[in-house]
Specification:
heterodimer, A: alpha+beta, Folate-binding fold, four-stranded antiparallel sheet, B: alpha+beta, Gyrase A, domain 2, Alpha-Beta Plaits, five-stranded antiparallel sheet, 4 helices
Amino acid sequence: MLLLECPYCGAKCEETELSPGGEAHIKRYGPGSSDEDFEAYLFMRENPKGVHFERWRHVYGCGKWFHAARCTQSLEVFGTYAAQTFEPPQEIKDKISGKRPGWSWRDFS
Amino acid sequence: MQKGQSKMSNIQTAMNGVRAAGYVDVSEAPATGMITLRGDLSDAGVQKAVKSVMGAGVPATLAVKDADAGQILWMSPDELMIVCAYDQADQMIADLIAALGDTHSMVVNVSDARAVFDLEGAATPEIIAKLAPIDVKSMQTGTVRRTRFAQIPAAFWMTSNDSARIICFRSVAEYMFNQLRNSAQAGFEVGDW
């Protein structure tokens, strides 16, 4: 069972109260972009064993989208943070570094 | 006589005030006024308008606030639910819209689009714990939580230590009543409360 804290209402939500939104921090490439960029935007995902960043929506609660940083192997949750950001806040990165030294995910580490 | 309401119509709640007595009593509340207010709750204009009309300000996150004529429920960072007497809702909405003025917001009467159920009995939290995936023991009087009850979305708050009020969509009122009644029937006690 996965428990995530919604950063907007502070409620601790069980997985079934949430709706998964796939991988986080994907940059959108639209009309006019190269085929390679568009393909990467549509299809290329990290699917890591370990540190991962995801989007979730508190669908049965306040309805807000948010981000979560967690470990796909142990289901440990490092933290959740607001959706209005292009990269994880330093505080979350520090927390992960404390527990998984040397981690990296896409351009973040 | 409310605007838009014909002389012929009688107010009808979703389940006709149905009741079920179990180890916790389940009943549908009489017609209740419910107003959805959407707008940025951190906005000074919204806060001022709510305060001036309701006599109480915007509640804190996940809180229920008692107002002059009803209660204000925190639903999300940009949504409030105002619970009041059924026949006061339209006037309250007019007052809110006037007070909000040009502030980016929306006020809608959802009284007839929701169903309201009351649970009463010492084991009330147990009934909720059977149906919703939340830590009911952390729910105190005066806090509201939107969650799911089995397969449907709902909001509830503890009105006292041994009673709760639940709001769900009117279209799923029967499902809500049935699952509450089944969970509360005598002989189905878990005994945790």
